[in-house]
Design a protein that fits this description.
Layout lengths: L12 H24 L6 H23 L2 H27 L11 H9 L1 H4 L1 H4 L5 H4 L2 E2 L2 E2 H24 L1
Antiparallel strand pairs: 1-2
Helix pairs in contact: 1-2, 1-8, 2-3, 2-4, 3-8
């Protein structure tokens, strides 16, 4: 005989809140690295900041609003944004960092079109070329830290999406 499980399905809201917090913290750390460690950002660095903030907004909305449909929608969008962020970190390391100029690359065009570099230059102004911005943190390229976080965020978003789907 089957017993009835009357407990509600676990909510993804706490995980979404942690995703948002991790994203805001990562941008905060990037700014700390920029201003305290003199790690100046290239267009791909700035694009990843924007992608982290997009994920933070999506996760924050999902955590605040809740509900199965909103959680599923925001979680799927988080997975897509995290995949995009991982691709940009990968591209930064394996392609862009090997070039002397980032002018007119996809990242440069996206950052310029959002006008964040003129609205909030302290956080979003490009200040280095891709080759010059190549930096390491405890022996690991900075963009690999970003890549790892995007992968973790994508997996967390996938977990939330699967939980919301029921």
């Amino acid at each position: 005989m089957r017993s009835l499980n009357l407990r509600p399905a676990p909510s993804g809201r706490p995980v979404l809140a942690l995703i948002a917090l991790a994203c805001v913290a990562s941008v905060g750390f990037a700014l700390l690295a920029q201003y305290q460690l003199d790690m100046q950002p290239c267009p791909w660095c700035i694009l990843q900041r924007v992608q982290f903030l997009l994920i933070a907004i999506l996760a924050g909305l999902g955590a605040l609003i809740g509900g199965r449909v909103v959680t599923l929608l925001t979680s799927v969008l988080i997975v897509l944004a995290a995949a995009s962020g991982a691709a940009s970190a990968w591209y930064q390391h394996f392609v862009a960092a090997k070039t002397s100029s980032c002018n007119l690359t996809l990242a440069d065009r996206i950052v310029s079109s959002l006008h964040l570099d003129t609205t909030l230059p302290a956080a979003f102004e490009v200040r280095a070329s891709c080759a010059d911005a190549a930096a390491k943190l405890i022996g690991v390229p900075f963009e690999f830290w970003s890549l790892a976080l995007f992968v973790v965020l994508g997996l967390a978003g996938l977990w939330c999406a699967l939980r919301a789907r029921g």
